[in-house]
Specification:
Aminopeptidase; elongated; alpha+beta; four-stranded antiparallel beta sheet; Alpha-Beta Plaits; six-stranded mixed beta sheet; 2 domains; 386 residues; 8 helices; 26% strand
């Protein structure tokens, strides 16, 4: 069986196991992966902080460096099955593209990493250091029960962390932080027939949004680091209960992406200061931080990054490109640990998180070859382990 066929077989089994968020249940898919890597000779365990979010840890070798591979096992949910041209829970190859829920984000990377783990085992394990494969949940929720838990509990303490992602076969070594902020506007309800008797909270929110857009976005436009840019997006707006009533509350949630050098406290203060300067009466608005994690930038000149670049050029036959991460990976939880961090994997980020998502079959095979070459270069094969 060719490498392509092996990885496709692995991916097909993963896609067939539902692991969508909500509800974020990764127990079945993690049991499947743990069983497979246990048979390959890895010391495996499944750990949970909060059920049913399960996480697999599979290790081989000892000592330094501790190299951790990671990919998240949860996916988005199927919003509307009629939007899918294929069965979302079946790996379907069409014109060289593997379709299925999670094919790109992020079960394609899991399949590659499982193949990589088994190939390393077939070659005798790492000659130097330990290699750990982690497959986690709670990523789609930006939650604390997946890789964040493995880091905070000390379950993994990597010197190098490689997170699977859709990076177009490029090693992304810088990533933006992410912050979610809630803004609530309040007013006074009244009958829509006499709106002058009320204080429309949606009208207030419109004024707040306009000020935020006019004053903050020009500041964000000046914040750039290579291909990375600071951004702000309003993703949720909620207000009112009936068309014939003046709404007493209105709520929005916004997403703010931060450059690696930005911190959450200052970014939140920027938003709060703009809202405070709008002139709306005190007590009619509030700004609340929902969640936030820092971005990261790997140490420049790290040998592991150089090894990836060499392998990428050799396998793809192309020069290294500067790719900006669209999303936020779980690598951000290790931003303050002074380790080598990167995301790497097959596919393009624009092809995930939507109906009929896919990953190119040829990129699965190339991603496997690139990472195998890096491990051979940096760790070698032929270790002897109990």
């Amino acid at each position: 069986m060719s490498t392509n066929d092996e990885i496709l077989d692995i991916l097909g089994a993963l896609i067939a196991i539902p692991s969508s968020y909500p509800p974020g249940d990764t127990s079945a898919i993690c049991a499947h992966v743990a069983n497979r890597l246990d048979k390959a000779g890895y010391a495996t365990e499944i750990v949970c902080k909060t059920q049913p979010v399960a996480n697999v840890i599979a290790s081989m070798g000892t000592g330094k460096p501790s190299v951790v591979f990671n990919a998240h096992a949860d996916t988005i949910a199927v919003a509307d099955l009629s939007d899918w041209q294929t069965d979302p829970f079946e790996a379907t190859v069409i014109n060289g593209l593997v379709h299925g829920l999670g094919a790109g984000n992020c079960k394609g990377s899991i399949a590659v990493q499982i193949w990589l783990a088994e190939e390393i085992a077939r070659r005798g394990g790492p000659a130097r250091g330990e290699i750990i494969f982690t497959f986690v949940g709670d990523e789609e929720n930006l939650g604390p029960n997946g890789l964040a838990y493995l880091r905070d509990s000390g379950t993994v303490r990597p010197d190098v962390l490689i997170c699977g992602a859709q990076t177009q076969l490029q090693a992304i070594t810088e990533e933006r932080g992410v912050m979610w902020v809630e803004i609530i506007a309040t007013g006074t309800g009244a009958h829509a027939g006499e709106p002058q008797n009320g204080d429309n909270a949606i009208d207030r929110m419109v004024r707040l949004i306009n000020d935020l857009t006019q004053k903050l976005r020009p500041i964000l436009d000046t914040k750039q680091r290579g291909a990375l840019r600071s951004t702000m997006n309003i993703g949720i707006i909620q207000g009112g209960t009936n068309t014939n009533a003046v709404p007493g509350t209105c709520r929005i949630e916004l997403d703010r992406r931060l450059l690696p050098e930005e911190n959450i406290e200052d970014a939140f203060a920027e938003i709060e200061n703009v809202i405070a300067g709008t002139g709306e009466p005190a007590g009619t608005w509030s700004v609340n931080l929902l969640t936030g994690t820092m971005g990261f930038a790997a140490p420049p000149g790290a040998p592991w990054i150089a090894s990836f670049h060499k392998a990428i050029q050799h396998v793809t036959g192309r020069m290294i490109r500067d790719i900006a991460a669209i999303g936020a990976s779980d690598a951000r939880y290790f931003a303050d640990d002074n380790i080598v961090l990167m995301t790497f994997g097959p596919g393009h980020a624009r092809d995930g998180h939507k109906a009929n998502e896919f990953v190119p079959l040829i990129e699965l095979e190339k991603a496997a070859r690139i990472q195998l070459a890096v491990i051979e270069d940096m760790m070698g094969f032929g270790g002897s382990f109990p």
